[in-house]
Write a structure and sequence with these properties.
This protein has about 170 residues and is α+β, with helices and mostly antiparallel strands. It is built from four helices and seven strands. This is Nuclear transport factor 2 family protein.
């Protein structure tokens, strides 16, 4: 696989993970991750991929919302053999009932996914996912989301991206 083909295959894996999340297709989502993958989204979630799917698919998880829409945009993907790292900007829209525990209408979260991926048997899968959060806002109430300070983006070289990409 050429570097360009590998980059596109990684991009496809990331897109299918977002699509699977919004469609609540847990089997598809699971297939985008390594069996022992870790997901760290700060105050939202930190644990194994199996725990992540269990949390998202629970009655209090995504089924409790009316809809979600994870839009991926700017991305940087670097492939080295059968390993890759990716930084992908995301805008995450959540629409829920007014009495929802944290959504209460319409919430937008601006963040980046920082992923480590591996290729096995011709398929790229996420082995570790971290979230770096820019900001979030409940557009219905007009209030800012309270985000885990340890996962907030930094506007200097202390940002988590440098642990993946070095000086790139």
């Amino acid at each position: 696989m050429t570097d360009a083909a590998a980059v596109e295959a990684v991009r496809r894996t990331l897109a299918l993970a977002a699509i699977a999340t919004d469609r609540m297709d847990w089997e598809q989502l699971r297939s985008r991750y390594e069996p022992d993958a870790r997901v760290d989204l700060g105050g939202f979630f930190d644990g194994s991929i199996d725990e992540y799917i269990a949390s998202n698919s629970s009655p209090e998880g995504l089924p409790s919302l009316d809809s979600t829409f994870h839009s991926l945009s700017t991305s940087l993907i670097e492939v080295s053999g059968s390993e890759a790292v990716a930084e992908t900007y995301a805008t995450c829209y959540h629409h829920g009932p007014p009495d929802h525990a944290w959504c209460q209408g319409f919430v937008v979260i601006y963040m980046r996914f920082l992923d480590e991926l591996v290729e096995r048997d011709g398929t790229w899968r996420i082995s570790r996912r971290r979230g770096a959060f820019e900001w979030g806002r409940n557009e219905t109430t007009g209030t800012a989301m309270e985000l885990d300070p340890s996962t907030l983006s930094r506007r200097d070289r202390s940002d988590v991206r440098y642990s993946l990409f070095g000086d790139s």
